[in-house]
């Protein structure tokens, strides 16, 4: 009996304390994380050559390690390096004109200038890609939307974003069901391209039309929760207020990057 | 012959259903792309939702669906961010064409693939040239690379590779959009901002909305 009521109190207390994601970096205000990562990502544009971009690309794994998301972040980032970075680098290295080709292979004659330019561009793109990937590993979309809502973004906008994620999962699952149902009814999903193309519509259309029919239920359930009322919404989850030290970090990073851009504009590098 | 209460109902429905249509449109963009991959089709088919929402809810919601889809896509493939303006243009164009009644007949819908493909191919090629210097990533880039290796210059190679690829992508896309619009029940159309077009009604009583192009 007493343990049961204790459980109830513990359950209730979950909603009375701030969200704790178990790591100082992941507990940071998602908007501060966003600003810091954007500043880091664009910083290498201010510097010539590819060294700055390479350093930035190496900073992300370190942040990921301290944030405890290295296991999620590193494989994704390495895959991006292979799929995106390598392609960008190789194409540029192979086709950008310059003097003194390193070697020749038919029409392709890579030069040192091409390799340098390829490395710079590929690493710049990877610096921006890394920031995006790391951001979505460190911050959860739910808490980001809550943080935006608390700063005055309309709940309709945050609803659309959150519902989109849920819809992708829901409709994706439904699409697989429909695919199997249609296959069992004899729709061919193998064979030549025209046969396969014809299977596309009978899979997608039922998914969409079923989703449209559910919109009314969603409208009713949101109305039942007073979503459209004009008073401020309440939330089950409480976000920790932004800590002063987070703001200090953000200001320092942004100021440093700004200084780098000013220095490059003045012509220091 | 629209009576008062029908007009009031229509206005009440405006905007409400749109916020539910947008997540569906975004999800359809992703699922269309996934099914195309699953069926090993050589096309993207990843703008069906954008055009569908643009055609049923108007330019604004269509553009938003395109923009949000692009940002969500960037989570797994960040370089796609550079092409976000394409998706926004698709949504805007779909809304504009819908107001002209294009998606009511299949022949006009088929023709609408041309402007969509021109945006996708030409603007896509221009962005590839501007942002990536003509050498981006993905299947198209390998085609471009092959054309450059054959002796074409980078800019020409981009247009040569991307415009036909986009026509191949947009023809099935608009035809699927047309077929799906045919399948939307009338009671749903009654609550969609551009539904009156497909119900064959005038935009009677809806003059409070900002843009006032009337449908003949």
In brief:
The complex is a heterodimer of chains A (269) and B (216). Chain A has 269 residues and is an all-alpha fold.
What would you note in describing this structure?
The complex is a heterodimer of chains A (269) and B (216). With 269 residues, chain A is mostly helical. Chain A has 9 helices and no strands. Chain A has helices at 2-14, 30-42, 51-67, 70-95, 112-138, 141-150, 155-184, 193-224, 244-266. In chain A, helix 3 packs antiparallel against helix 4 (70-95) and helix 6 (141-150) runs antiparallel to helix 7 (155-184). The longest helix of chain A is centred in the C-terminal third of the chain and has 32 residues, at 193-224. Chain A is flat, with a radius of gyration of 25 Å. The model of chain A has no long low-confidence stretch (mean pLDDT 87). With 216 residues, chain B is mostly helical. Chain B has 10 helices and no strands. Chain B has helices at 4-13, 18-38, 48-57, 59-76, 84-99, 106-132, 139-149, 154-183, 186-189, 195-198. In chain B, helix 3 (48-57) packs parallel to helix 5 (84-99). The radius of gyration of chain B is 19 Å and the shape is elongated. Chain B starts with a helix and ends in an 18-residue tail after the last helix. The model of chain B is unreliable at 7-14 and 205-216 (pLDDT under 50). The chains are: A mainly alpha (269), B mainly alpha (216). The interface between A and B is large, with 55 and 55 residues.
């Amino acid at each position: 009996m007493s343990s049961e009521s204790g459980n109830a109190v513990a359950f209730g207390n979950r909603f009375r304390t701030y969200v704790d994601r178990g790591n100082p970096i992941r507990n940071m205000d998602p908007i501060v994380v966003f600003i810091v990562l954007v500043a880091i990502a664009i910083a290498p544009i201010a510097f010539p050559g590819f060294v700055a971009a390479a350093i930035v690309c190496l900073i992300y794994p370190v942040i990921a390690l301290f944030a405890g998301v290295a296991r999620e972040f590193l494989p994704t980032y390495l895959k991006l390096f292979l799929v995106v970075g390598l392609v960008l680098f190789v194409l540029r290295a192979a086709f950008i004109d310059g003097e003194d080709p390193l070697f020749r292979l038919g029409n392709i004659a890579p030069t040192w200038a091409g390799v340098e330019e390829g490395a710079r561009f590929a690493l710049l793109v990877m610096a921006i890609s890394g920031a995006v990937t790391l951001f979505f590993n460190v911050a959860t979309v739910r808490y980001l939307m809550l943080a935006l809502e608390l700063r005055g973004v309309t709940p309709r906008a945050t609803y659309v974003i959150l519902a989109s994620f849920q819809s992708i999962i829901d409709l994706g699952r439904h699409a697989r069901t429909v695919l199997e149902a249609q296959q069992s009814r004899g729709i061919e999903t193998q064979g030549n391209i025209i046969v396969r193309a014809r299977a596309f519509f009978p899979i997608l259309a039922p998914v969409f039309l079923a989703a449209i029919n559910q919109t009314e239920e969603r409208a009713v359930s949101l109305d039942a929760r007073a979503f459209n009322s004009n008073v401020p919404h309440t939330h089950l989850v409480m976000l920790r207020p932004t800590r002063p030290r987070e703001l200090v970090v953000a200001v320092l990073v942004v100021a440093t990057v700004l200084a780098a851009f000013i220095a490059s504009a003045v012509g220091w590098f | 012959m629209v009576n008062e209460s029908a007009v009031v109902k229509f206005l009440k429905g405006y905007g409400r259903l749109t916020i539910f249509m947008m997540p569906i449109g975004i999800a359809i963009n992703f699922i269309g792309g996934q099914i195309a991959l699953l069926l090993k089709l050589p096309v993207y088919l990843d703008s069906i939702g954008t055009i569908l929402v643009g055609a049923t809810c108007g330019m604004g919601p269509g553009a938003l669906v395109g923009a949000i889809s692009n940002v969500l896509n960037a989570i797994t493939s960040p370089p796609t961010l550079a092409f976000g303006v394409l998706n926004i243009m698709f949504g805007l164009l779909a809304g504009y064409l819908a107001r002209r009644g294009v998606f009511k007949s299949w022949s006009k819908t088929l023709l609408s693939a041309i402007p969509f493909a021109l945006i996708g191919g030409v603007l896509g090629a221009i962005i590839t040239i501007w942002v990536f210097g003509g050498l981006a990533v993905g299947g198209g880039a390998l085609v471009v690379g092959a054309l450059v290796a054959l002796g074409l210059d980078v800019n020409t190679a981009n247009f040569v590779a991307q415009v036909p690829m986009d026509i191949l992508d947009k023809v099935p896309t608009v035809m699927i959009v047309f077929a799906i619009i045919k399948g939307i029940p009338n009671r749903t159309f009654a609550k969609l901002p551009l539904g009156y077009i497909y119900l064959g009604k005038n935009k009677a009583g809806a003059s409070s909305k900002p843009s006032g192009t009337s449908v003949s």
